[in-house]
């Protein structure tokens, strides 16, 4: 996956050290509205290893999603507030995908996690136990401007000064999706801790997915984001290997060092393999460096100019 002026992204998927085939599938698509503003759709699907044709199920789900996107996304962008309407349509699409998979000769199941990003608004449609995270950063304007200067300077790794205490980042990691699993039900009921759920023998038992039984009830969420915020979509082959705090630490270390999200995605999948994951692993990273219209005419302060000169001279 390649980046452009508005989008920084990286994605990597791997079969892993144990399984013989990769049942994960992903896609990212971008479309422009009539004013040239871009909306992105990112999706990750994890085929169910316990059923025949898990790879077919995940691929089919994403392909049907992409077909819907290419046919309808442009029309939704004619609306003033397109994301809520798109989420409603995506809920219906999940039901259609579920029915389609149920009609297949082979019993095949998959998760599907969809993220929409548009002018500082995000929307989520999700079924299963793949996850979408949001890494929220402090010092929003400063971090965004620094990344832009790094890109212009052709730097993949930040200068040493960028990694010192002078440029501390206030990072918070949020899980934006809810796991449709038996252990998550127990956590919500207060019978199991988050940490105990992470290693519980029944952690892979899903309460909802596509292609196994009739009727799905996708999880939806909406919210706002800043230009420096980072979104991560991943299958359980990655997040099951690390605690929430460990994932936050991994992201923090690489945010301070790299601007190249593709390298980070590859590193994360490699680390999951080295840590002993027994599953396929997919990690997708997306940042939308959008600029609000009123901000485009603002100039950098002398303090920022001085800092840039020190960093990128």
UniProtKB/TrEMBL annotation:
Pfam families: PP2C_2 (PF13672). It comes from the Bacteria. Residues 8-288 form the PPM-type phosphatase domain. One of its GO terms (molecular function) is protein serine/threonine phosphatase activity. InterPro entries: PP2C, PPM-type-like_dom_sf, PPM-type_phosphatase-like_dom. This is Protein phosphatase.
């Amino acid at each position: 996956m390649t980046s452009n002026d508005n989008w920084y992204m990286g994605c990597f998927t791997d079969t892993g050290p144990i399984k013989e085939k990769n049942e994960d599938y992903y896609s990212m698509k971008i479309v422009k509205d009539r004013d040239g503003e871009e909306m992105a759709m990112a999706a990750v699907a994890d085929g169910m290893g316990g059923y025949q044709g898990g790879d077919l199920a995940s691929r089919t789900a994403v392909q049907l999603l992409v077909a819907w996107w290419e046919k309808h996304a442009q029309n939704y962008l004619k609306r003033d507030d397109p994301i809520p309407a798109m989420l409603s349509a995506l809920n219906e699409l999940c039901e259609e995908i579920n029915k389609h998979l149920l009609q297949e000769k082979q019993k095949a199941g998959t998760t599907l996690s969809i993220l929409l990003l548009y002018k500082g608004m995000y929307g989520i449609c999700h079924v299963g136990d793949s996850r979408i995270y949001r890494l929220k950063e402090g010092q929003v304007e400063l971090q965004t401007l620094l990344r832009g200067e790094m890109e212009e300077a052709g730097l993949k790794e930040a200068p040493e000064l960028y990694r010192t205490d002078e440029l501390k980042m206030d990072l918070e990691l949020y899980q934006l999706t809810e796991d449709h699993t038996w252990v998550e039900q127990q956590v919500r009921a207060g019978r199991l801790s988050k940490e105990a759920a992470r290693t519980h023998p029944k952690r892979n038992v899903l309460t909802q997915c596509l292609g196994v039984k009739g009727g799905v009830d996708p999880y939806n969420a909406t919210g706002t984001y800043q230009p420096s915020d980072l979104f991560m979509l991943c299958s359980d082959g990655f997040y099951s290997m690390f605690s929430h705090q460990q994932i936050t630490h991994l992201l923090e270390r690489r945010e301070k060092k790299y601007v190249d999200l593709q390298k980070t995605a590859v590193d994360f999948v490699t680390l999951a393999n080295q840590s002993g994951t027994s599953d396929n692993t997919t990690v997708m990273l997306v940042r939308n460096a959008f600029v609000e219209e009123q901000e485009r005419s603002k100039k950098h302060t002398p303090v920022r100019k001085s800092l840039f000169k020190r960093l990128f001279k």
